[in-house]
Structure formats: C-alpha cells, structure tokens
Write a structure and sequence with these properties.
The chain is mainly α and 123 residues long. The chain contains 6 helices and no strands.
Length: 123
C-alpha cells in the first residue's frame, strides 16, 4: 500500500507540474493578447480623456478594482449600458474568455498606456 501512495504522490506532482506549465502558457498568451489589444485600442479608437483616465490609474493601480474588461469599460464610461459594452467588445474583437480574464484586462490597460506615453507629450 505504501508503494501505491508514493506512486500517487508522484502522479500528483507530475500533474501539478504539467498544469502549472499550462497555466503559465495561458497567462502569457493572455498578457500578450491584452497588451496588443490595448495598444490597438489606444491607436485606433480611444479618446484623449479615456487615455488620460488610464494614466491616472497607473499612478495608483491598487485603487483600481480591475478584474474584467467590464471593469475597464465602466471606468472609462459613466454609463452601465450593457449593449454599449457588448458592442465595445465586438468592435475590439475581444472574446468572451478574454473579457473575463484578469491578466488580459490589466495587460489591455498597460498596452494602451504604453501607446499614450509615447504620444502624450506631442499633443
């Protein structure tokens, strides 16, 4: 029986290692996609006041309760129109999975801020 427990422990360790690698790969993809999407949004769609709002967040990111793209949308706009949110996601080609992914949402913000920091002094 002891031998079986060791085998199960090894199986669990192997499973944990495999899933950890899978999670890191997923997280990395989310961050890359979020950064690219945020940069594209800043370049093609964002208004100055929206980008300026994001800049304020960057000085105190802990003050921002950011878990999903809905949180980003709410912070950028004062309306709670779910139709507007759905259209915003569609316009930016954000998938349902990305919309609820915290890493994607934060990376979206940082991607947009990166673009804004490059052009702000020229405005």
């Amino acid at each position: 029986m002891r031998m079986n427990m060791n085998t199960e422990d090894e199986d669990l360790k192997s499973t944990i290692a495999r899933l950890r690698a899978s999670k890191q790969k997923h997280d990395s993809k989310s961050k890359v996609a979020g950064t690219a999407c945020g940069a594209n949004w800043a370049k093609q769609h964002a208004e100055y006041d929206e980008l300026d709002s994001l800049k304020c967040w960057s000085t105190d990111p802990a003050s921002l309760e950011l878990e999903t793209m809905r949180d980003v949308y709410k912070a950028l706009r004062d309306d709670n129109d779910s139709g507007g949110y759905d259209q915003w996601l569609k316009d930016l080609a954000i998938t349902a999975e990305q919309a609820t992914d915290r890493d994607f949402a934060w990376s979206f913000v940082w991607g947009a801020l990166d673009v804004f920091s490059c052009v702000e002094d020229q405005l």
